[in-house]
Amino acid sequence: MTKLDNEIFKIKNMIYFIRDQKVMLDSDLALLYGVETKVLNQQVKRNLKRFPSDFMFQLSSEEFHSLKSQIATSKSGSGGKQKLPLVFTENGVAMLSGILNSDRAINVNISIMRIFTKLRSFHALETSLSGEVKELKENSNKLFKVVFERLDSIEEDLIPKLPNQRKRIGITSDKPT
Predict the structure, then answer these.
(1) The whole model's pTM is what?
(2) pLDDT (tens digit per residue) in 42-86
(3) pLDDT tens for residues 123-142?
(4) In angstroms, what CA-CA distances link 40 with 25, 60, 83, 101, 130?
(5) Where is the KilA-N DNA-binding domain positioned along the sequence (predicted)?
(6) How far apart are the first and last CA of the chain?
(7) Which of 7, 35, 37, 92 has the highest count of CB atoms within 10 angstroms of its CB?
(8) What CA–CA distance (Å, rounded) separates 95 from 24?
């Protein structure tokens, strides 16, 4: 696995599906950008107008606990009360590039945008293939129904009807045993 493949795999594993949206956690993004989570969140708070609710939102307590159980580790090392994380949609991640203006942030954003695009195209391909498989299955079922109906009608014509009283086959003995 190349370094690029490793980075792509790492980023893909940081994308979660919450509220019917693909999102990334503030702490994961901070890690990728090479800044502390609180620094990233401070920059976001200074630029809140750039982050409407479809770009970024804060997780509810239930969502956070559900997510924590999925990733199996807490990102908090403090052991104290942890602030509920912010999550960023694809558009929110794109907006971050405007407020985190380092070379690393720009390069990370480009990689993340490419991954989101690939995920979208994989989803479209999966949907298309799923439709084709469904159509193929329906057509096969119709074809088999026609074949079996034809076989039934041919069978009735070709196989002579057996008499109701058939002669017994086998050895018979007139002597009592």
Answers:
(1) 0.56
(2) 999 999 999 999 999 999 999 988 887 766 554 544 444 578 999
(3) 666 777 777 888 888 888 88
(4) 11, 20, 14, 11, 40
(5) 14-99
(6) 82
(7) 92
(8) 13
Phi and psi for 110 in degrees, rounded to 5? -60, -45
Joined together, the tokens standing for residue 147 give 């074949």
**Residue 157: pLDDT band with limits 50, 70, 90:** low
The DSSP line for 43-73 is HHHHTGGG--TTTEEEPPHHHHHHHHHHH-S
Query: In this structure, which amino acid lies at residue 38?
Result: K
Contact 19, 53 (CB under 8 A): no
pLDDT in tens, 100-125: 777 777 777 777 777 777 777 776 66
CATH architecture of 3-73+81-125: Roll (3.10)
Joined together, the tokens standing for residue 55 give 């770009």
Q: Where are the domains of the chain?
A: 3-73+81-125
